[in-house]
Amino acid sequence: MLCIHSKNRDPYYNLAAEEYLLRYSNEDVFMLWQSTPAVVVGKHQNTLAEINYRFVRNNGVQIARRLTGGGTVYHDPGNINFSFIRQGEPGKLVDFGRFIEPVISFLKTFGIQAHRGLKNEILVKGKKISGNAEHVYKNRVLHHGTLLYKADLNSLHESIRPGGGKYTGKAVQSNRSSVLNLVECINPVISIEDFKEALLVFIMKHYQGRLFEMEKDQNMAILQLAGEKYNTWEWIYGWSPDYEFENVWKTNSPEIAIKLGAHRGIITGCTLKSLIIPSELAAMVNKGLTGTPHEESNILTTLEALGFKLILDKRELEDLVLAFF
Fold first, then answer.
1. Class for domain 243-322, per CATH?
2. In which element (H, E) is residue 258 found?
3. Mean per-residue pLDDT for 94-105?
4. Hey, which of 88, 112, 120, 217 would disulfide with 107, CB 3.0 to 4.6 Å?
5. Is the pTM value of this prediction over 0.90?
6. Distance CA 18, CA 29 (A)
């Protein structure tokens, strides 16, 4: 087994590396990686429905979509991500226990009594410390998971807490869980780097693995995949299943009721209802937004062009735009 310790903390690069190694390598692989603060949604989720848009926007939390299904997870430098990619027999590739049990065995070397939950999470003291998901490609399977070690739990909770609006649709929804940092379970406490190194050594011994670094051409292919897929609006937001969104914006002015629909992230229709918005202007908003991305800069530009700066002051207009999410 090739064992890779990725030093790149760009979530888009590492998600692309997983797909590249799944599709274009014939080797069994184990990869450890961390990332800058990011929310990573499952392949079949509505991204905007899973995040607290205002919080992630104002705190520089990146948004990404991964190749696997399942629910939304939060990454930051206090979280460790592990990825297994292995060959197998078609029809028998999905096997969460095969990959979760070695991680549980590793945790036991620190005296941590962990167990696998009903949704393939890893639990310690009844709280979630790891979420796991899988994706099958031909005769290979990608299994990846998180390990909360010393993550910013406040940022975690705020980032994946749904905002004020209501999304409806057929997207997969996350199950919110109580979480725990592993650092609270270790005595004496060690650094996350030492903990990560111990995990790497354990896995190498368990699978008789060897360290491997990406070659230049592999690295370039991964960077290309990250740029062309994983770090694009079309994948992060546009891949979302169809949805409808409703919200009511309230300020010193009369409230404005917002309702819109979207197909692959593109607005299919928008209605605004308020005592301060004439029906003719509301119709112009619908016409201006229909067929355009459900994206902050696009909505701001449209409302400005239609003269909303004459109705609302700058702060109110910016706040109204955020109410579209």
1. alpha beta
2. strand 256-263
3. 96
4. 112
5. yes
6. 9
CA distance 273 to 262: 19
Q: Smallest Cα–Cα separation from 164: which of 108, 109, 246, 99?
A: 246
Alpha helices in 153-293 (DSSP H): 153-159, 192-207, 216-225, 233-236, 279-289
From 90-99, 104-113, 141-150, 216-225, the region with the lowest mean pLDDT: 90-99
Taking CA atoms, 298 is separated from 148, 171, 247, 266, 287, in Å, by: 36, 24, 18, 11, 13
pLDDT score for 251: 78
Is the pLDDT assigned to residue 324 strictly greater than 80?
A: yes
Tens of pLDDT, residues 146-188: 999 999 999 999 999 877 899 999 999 988 889 999 999 999 9
Q: Which two tokens stand for residue 300?
A: 């701001």
- CATH 3.30.930.10 is right for the domain spanning 2-236: yes
Domain 2-236 identical in fold to domain 243-322? no
Dihedral in degrees, nearest 10, Cα atoms 165, 167, 173, 178: 10
Could you tell me the two tokens for 286? 């619908």
* Residue ranges per structural domain of the chain: 2-236, 243-322
**Residue 117 or 253, more confident:** 117
pLDDT band at 134 (very low <50, low <70, confident <90, very high): very high
Please state the φ and ψ torsions of residue 284, each to the nearest 5 degrees. Answer: -70, -35
CA gap 91, 141 in Å, rounded:
11
Rounded to whole angstroms, the Cα distance separating 292 from 266 reads 5
């274009």: which residue's tokens?
24
**C-alpha–C-alpha distance, residues 271 and 262, integer Å:** 13
